[in-house]
Design a protein that fits this description.
The complex is a heterodimer. Chain A is an alpha+beta fold. Chain A has 17 helices and 35 strands. Chain A has four domains: 135 residues, Rossmann fold, CATH 3.40.50; 186 residues, ATPase, nucleotide binding domain (Nucleotidyltransferase, domain 5); 109 residues, Dna Ligase, domain 1; 76 residues, no CATH class. Chain B is built from 14 helices and 26 strands. The relative contact order of chain B is 0.11. Chain B has a seven-stranded antiparallel beta sheet. The chains are: A alpha+beta, B alpha+beta.
């Protein structure tokens, strides 16, 4: 018998999901997180979940894990001291960046640029040059480089990045530099741009490779520790880390290319959402993950999350594939304020965070937050559990929201619903970015909500988007662990290949893509995944010659063999027309070619609830006054643990569970499906 | 005669009461729509100028044409007043003629699209956007002839024209226009992209009206304008004195050997209203450096600048326009008479921002910003490559952001909203050139408590014979420093020929032949320094030295002495203290403005310092001079 284990480490809880690979049966566990050394929480969880399953830890063969280590390293600025080698003349590539000053006309007056991720004093130049076509124009001056590297070594760098001009076309000099660096500074990890992201655009390639170096030591330490702890209990266990693009990487690959893990945490939530919604029969989804300080949204079509060739964390944007998750500074802790001059109501992006947190937490917070508004409106009853022993203080919440009401000269509850409306509007804006602005009609998608605050706001957002049903999965917290445990192993290989269609041929493109597929497959081979269980598909980044945009076209191996470039071109014209209302007769141009290889999907199935009738009365635990659409309404409170499949809950209603609270608005009903999801739809 | 607006639905809009929440939601939604316009444009345009560098300006206006969200203020009202014809559903207007739209666009490279937005037979709002076309024909590639004396030399002029008539593209007109451009496929694609961006805005406005109701959207747009007016009114009262303030600055030359040209402006407040008067500005140039300045656009510049300096929380729109009056005498550099050439207006346009900074800041030194990178220097390179294919590059350069109250100016950055550089690897793969150097110039930022940003040096190595054009400024006058800060370094263009000869090129030139192997150093200028450099923490100066942004010699301007050894600099604290004391005694006082010398002094030192002959005093057309004298 072999088992696989999904582990998600959140701020409050560590969730685990243990799957019997043969039967698809599974067990879950929830234990407190241990922020100082999260592996302690993980090990506690493993003890708990193996005990409840009645198995030995040694029976676990695979552990899948989504981690925020890389993200937090960037956000807290606690990464490595990174040295950088550039081509002569390009030492300031990160200092100049794209010369962009945010904030519109006059924005420079208040713009203060943050320091580059690799400090200029740790950046050296190499005498060498490669042309755009990849020819060596000037050979690498090895002697000069040695001297510079020795000086750099004296400055105690912890990681080195090499990013040379046009290295995307020819990485030979970068490899040379690495070889020399290994001699001059043994033990210092070296990342080279032609391996991390062999794509055109010197700034983007450099920042991506530097980010890789920056987070690498922290990630390595974390993964090594975890691996050692796991190995001590389960001898041959394989550890996999969830990547930003929702695929799984081996621990070794994750350590080498940690820049691919910057969105590992949120990608786990999206993967979990995809999996559970697929069980319920909804392959097209918008995901809404609302936490304390921010909200992540993404679009899923036909069970696949939209990917983006870009990952942004804080003010660092790198070229790495990630699930196209847009983040807005809108969360339960977002602070509402009314600026003096305009007297407009603004919510966020400042957040009260977890400490002091919303006024309702009674931990000394006095500023009005979204959570306080939800308390005033009765959406969050005082009986709600916030994932702990915390209780809500309605008076404190009211006092905080009253400051906004006074500034706007509105009654208290109107002001509270204003705060909620504005924060909903902000999330609506993010959802539009991934849907309408990409040419998708949100009415064709279901909206799945998770995170601590998602289920509170989901019904209202469903109304704004016209996205039905609104799905509230059971245990929104354990969703990420589901994602971790059910994700397929995946790797990809890509290459910049800029050619107008007339300048290349089907055979040439097929040849390159097959080579890339072989290279991506080798990573899965190393995981002992037999070739017959691997599936390959291709992606092409393409545009009209002269354009700056890149649209990514997916093509199957069959399409590539049978139709080649024609299939790509037709799909591109269609997509361009859909997105931008016009297509052009200009030459099409390939930019990047990519092969994606995946292992098999898991057989795990979601558990089913006991079947009951439509009447949910048995789960009712109380009544609550709720302020909606300018009037007070009586809502029923239900205990989610007591709901049965087939129950239909008429709004206004509130459903509480251990770590979240769901709201069903008047004019809507939530039906409970076989898997325990609440599916909210309008009744009129 | 004003335009006649045709509406099949005569029902008037009603002003309804709005709750503040709905108002905020509509404001957010309109702002999102405006960013969406940018996104659509960048993704589908083809010319590097628009798609990479973002030389474009979007806006959404209410049905009267007042800008509710956007950048450069609204000119639709003026267009409606001047357009003798009908406006109907499905019409889309194109123009690039500054003289036909009262300077809404200020040279004919900028193509302006105006799109009335209809819903249920009624005009509900407007979308508009203009973008800089790489080429619009005329006598030189890039269509910015330095030596033009009439607009007819600068390319094809399009008066306000229905390019879509009731939804039908007027293909013959479009083809006629494209026929006159050197890179028609770029113009076509950029044109399509601008239309697509405006259609996006239209779609969003209609959705908003459907969601909230036509009257609510109508009322909200009005209310947003009024809200801005209230906030700006307060700001004007607080920050603009009744006493007259005066400031002048210069563009160095006209590319024909004459200069500098003076831009002068006075500002004072009368009650709640602020008046800007450009009396004293030089007459119009006989060359192409004239800048047709639209008064409404200037109000936007001034308003935005005030908001950014004093209270960045305020969202700006056209609402405050009644609170400002702008007087620009006719026949001057800023309001030239037809058919004066206009193509090279970028220098005067940029300089307006320095004038504004000096004008608004001198009464509030804490908020004063130094002179900055007030231009968008152009570089152009064109010719036939070895396959006989025509290549033509138009690129905007960047430089030093000025020192400012909030901190140092970034190095080698853009003062223009949303502009970015073109990746050098992109240039190298699409044009016959290599970028050998791409770095900022140490010490080129003005010294100050807050350092001015460094200028940018781009080393273009040409791989094919071709011709280049350069449009830059601030080679003679300095980007001034303030509150004790020093001026930044001036610009310079040095051509190192493959045959070993060197030549300093003038700041504005066309048709310079280059050969394969020639290297051009395109040096822009630094930002002025802000505040007393002797007050800058020595550790910060040391940090800049170790970063290579300031040299050991340059550190002495801050009174900081560093010792360099093994590629590492350390602070000499004793020597620093002594030098700082010495420098403090030598100087008389901290100057409010440091211009680096009077115009006469600069001209005298010109040849020795810049390697270029000093420009001669501008000669104006006789009538312009007379008009100026009479005005006085």
């Amino acid at each position: 018998m072999s088992f696989r284990l999904g582990v998600d480490v959140g701020g409050t809880f560590t969730d685990l999901l243990l799957v019997n690979e043969a039967t698809g049966e599974f067990h879950t566990a929830k234990v407190p997180s241990t922020p100082n050394d999260s592996s302690i929480g993980v090990l506690n969880g493993i003890e708990r979940v193996t005990a409840s399953a009645g198995i030995e830890a040694a029976a676990i063969t695979h552990v899948m894990h989504g981690t925020t280590v890389a993200t937090n390293t960037v956000l807290t600025g606690s990464g490595a001291r990174v040295g950088l080698v550039t081509t002569r003349g390009y030492r300031q590539v990160l200092q100049i960046a794209r010369s962009f000053v945010p904030g519109g006309l006059g924005g420079w007056v208040i713009y203060n640029k943050s320091l580059p991720l690799a400090p200029l004093e740790l950046t050296i130049e190499a005498n060498e040059r490669i042309s755009a076509a990849g020819e060596v124009i000037e050979a690498l001056d090895e002697a000069a480089l040695r001297t510079s590297l020795q000086q750099l070594a004296g400055k105690h760098i912890e990681a080195l990045t090499v990013s040379l001009t046009n290295a995307y076309a020819n990485g030979a000099h970068e490899s040379e530099v690495r070889r020399i660096a290994h001699e001059v500074m043994p033990g210092i990890p070296v990342s080279i741009s032609s391996e991390v992201v062999p794509e055109m655009q010197e700034y983007e390639r450099t920042i991506t490779t530097v980010a890789n170096s920056y987070v690498r030591p922290k990630v390595e330490t974390y993964i090594d520790n975890l691996k050692n702890e796991l190995r001590a209990r389960m001898k041959d266990v394989q550890l996999h880390i969830l990547r930003s693009d929702g695929g799984l990487a081996s621990a070794a690959a994750a350590e080498q290319y940690p820049v691919n893990l910057l969105m590992s945490g949120p990608a786990g939530g999206v993967s979990g959402a995809i999996w559970i919604a697929r069980q319920a029969g909804f392959p097209d989804l918008l995901t809404l993950d609302m936490g304390g300080t921010s909200t992540d949204v993404a679009l899923v079509q036909n069970g696949e999350a939209q990917l983006r060739r870009e990952t942004t964390v804080g003010d660092v944007t790198v070229r790495a594939s990630s699930v196209d998750i847009r983040t807005v500074g809108a969360g339960g802790g977002s602070i509402a304020h009314v600026p003096e001059l305009t007297r407009a109501l603004r919510v966020g992006p400042q957040s009260a965070g977890a400490d002091p947190g919303p006024a309702a937490y009674g931990k000394g917070g006095t500023e009005p937050t979204v959570t306080d508004a939800n308390v005033v409106l009765g959406f969050l009853p005082s009986s709600a559990k916030l994932g702990g022993d915390m209780t809500l203080d309605g008076d404190q919440a009211a006092a905080a929201v009253q400051t906004v009401a006074d500034a706007l000269d509105l009654p208290l509850k109107r002001a509270a619903s204003g705060i909620v409306d504005i924060v909903n509007e902000n999330m609506f804006g993010a959802l539009r970015l991934v849907s309408v602005e990409q040419g998708y009609d949100p009415r064709d998608f279901a909206l799945i909500a998770f995170g601590g605050a998602g289920p509170l706001h989901a019904n209202a957002l469903g109304k704004l988007m016209g996205s039905w049903p609104v799905i509230i999965p059971p245990g929104p917290g354990v969703l990420c662990a589901y994602g971790d445990a059910t994700t397929r192993i995946r790797d990809e290989a890509s290459r910049t290949f800029i050619r107008r269609f007339p300048d290349t041929s089907n055979d040439e493109v097929r040849g390159i893509l097959r080579e890339l597929a072989a290279s991506a497959a080798s990573a899965l081979d190393e995981e002992d995944i037999p070739r017959e269980q691997q599936s390959v598909h291709y992606q092409v980044d393409i545009r009209y010659h002269g354009q700056g945009l890149l649209l990514t076209i997916d093509i199957s191996a069959d399409e590539l063999e049978n139709k080649g470039l024609d299939a790509i071109g037709e799909q591109f014209d269609r997509m361009h027309e859909q997105l931008f209302t016009f297509a052009l007769s200009a030459d099409k141009e390939l930019v990047n070619l990519r092969a994606v290889v995946q292992g098999e999907a898991t057989r795990v199935r979601a558990p089913t609830l006991e079947r009951g009738g439509p009447d949910p009365a048995a789960a009712a635990i109380g009544r609550q006054e709720m302020f909606v659409a300018d009037s007070d309404r009586q809502a029923t409170i239900y205990d989610r643990a007591k709901l049965q499949s087939g129950n239909v809950i008429d709004g206004p209603a509130i459903v509480t569970e251990m770590d979240s609270t769901s709201v069903i608005l008047p004019g809507h009903a939530g039906s409970v499906d076989d898997f325990g999801n609440i599916l909210i739809r309008p009744t009129e | 005669m004003p335009a006649k607006i045709i509406q099949t639905n005569p029902r008037p809009f009603n002003r309804v009461d709005l709750d503040p929440i709905t108002l905020d939601i509509i404001e957010n939604a309109l702002r999102n729509a405006r960013y969406e316009m940018d996104a659509v444009l960048f993704r589908t345009a083809m010319s590097p100028g628009i798609r990479e560098q973002h030389d474009e300006f979007p806006m959404i206006a209410n049905l009267d044409g007042k800008m509710v969200v956007g950048q450069f203020g609204s000119f639709i009202w003026g267009f409606q007043q001047g357009f003798d014809g009908t406006i109907e559903e499905g019409d889309v207007f194109l123009t690039n003629d500054p003289y036909a739209c009262n300077g809404a666009v200020s040279h004919i490279n900028d193509w302006l699209i105006l799109m009335p937005i209809y819903k249920d037979g009624r005009l509900i709002s407007w979308a508009a956007m203009f973008g800089h076309m790489t080429d619009v024909g005329g006598k030189v590639p890039g269509s910015l002839p330095t030596d033009a004396t009439q607009i007819f030399e600068e390319g094809i002029r399009v008066p306000p024209t229905k390019i879509y008539r009731k939804g039908e593209l007027q293909e013959e007109i479009l083809e006629l226009i494209l026929h006159n451009c050197r890179l028609p496929h770029w113009n076509r694609s950029d044109f399509n992209a601008i239309i697509a961006a405006c259609r996006t805005a239209a779609k969003r406005c209609i959705e908003l009206a459907e969601r909230f109701g036509d009257d609510v959207l109508y009322s909200a747009m009005d209310e947003l304008l009024e809200r801005n007016k209230r906030a700006m009114g307060q700001l004007i009262l607080n920050t603009v004195p009744e006493k007259k303030q005066y400031f002048e600055d210069f563009i160095c030359d006209d590319g024909m050997g004459m200069g500098p040209y003076k831009i002068a402006c006075s500002m004072w407040r009368e009650g709640e209203k602020v008046i800007f008067d450009f009396a004293g500005t030089d007459p119009q140039s006989i060359g192409s450096v004239n800048f047709f300045l639209n008064e409404e656009m200037f109000k936007m510049f001034a308003g935005v600048y005030m908001i950014m300096v004093f209270d960045p929380q305020i969202l700006f729109n056209d609402g405050f326009y009644d609170l400002m009056e702008v007087r620009i005498p006719e026949g001057t550099l800023l309001k030239p008479r037809f058919p004066a050439a206009l193509s090279c207006r970028t220098h005067a346009l940029g300089r307006i921002f320095d004038v504004l900074g000096g004008l608004l800041g001198q009464g509030n030194p804490d908020f004063l910003t130094a002179a900055g990178f007030s231009d968008s220097p152009h570089f152009m390179y064109s010719g036939y490559d070895k396959n006989g294919e025509w290549y033509q590059l138009y690129q905007i350069g960047f430089g030093g952001i000025p020192g400012k109250p909030s901190g140092d100016g970034p190095d080698g950055h853009s003062l223009w909203p949303s502009f970015t550089n073109v990746p050098n690897e992109f240039l190298e793969s699409y044009f016959p050139l290599r970028i050998d150097i791409y770095e900022t110039i140490p010490d080129s930022g003005g010294a100050g408590l807050h350092r001015g940003g460094n200028a940018l040096r781009v080393g273009y190595r040409f791989l094919e014979p071709g011709t280049i054009s350069i449009h830059d400024d601030r080679w003679l006058t300095y980007p001034w420093g303030v509150n004790g800060g020093s001026p930044g370094a001036r610009s310079r263009k040095l051509l190192m020929r493959a045959d070993g000869s060197e030549e300093i090129l003038s700041s504005k030139c066309d048709n310079v032949a280059v050969a394969a192997g020639d290297l051009l150093y395109f040096d822009t200028w630094g930002g002025g320094g802000w505040g007393d450099p002797l007050q800058r923490p020595a550790e910060q100066v040391l940090f800049d030295v170790n970063a290579g942004l300031v040299t050991a010699e340059g550190a002495r301007r801050y009174g900081v002495v560093v010792i360099e050894a093994n590629g590492n600099a350390t602070l000499d604290a004793t020597a620093t203290e002594a030098l700082r004391e010495e420098l403090a005694q030598q100087r008389s006082e901290c100057l409010l403005f440091d211009f680096g010398g009077s115009i006469d002094e600069l001209k005298q030192r010109c040849a020795a310092e810049t390697g270029l002959t000093a420009p001669t005093a501008p000669v104006f057309q006789k009538w312009a001079t007379i008009a100026q004298t009479e005005a006085k």
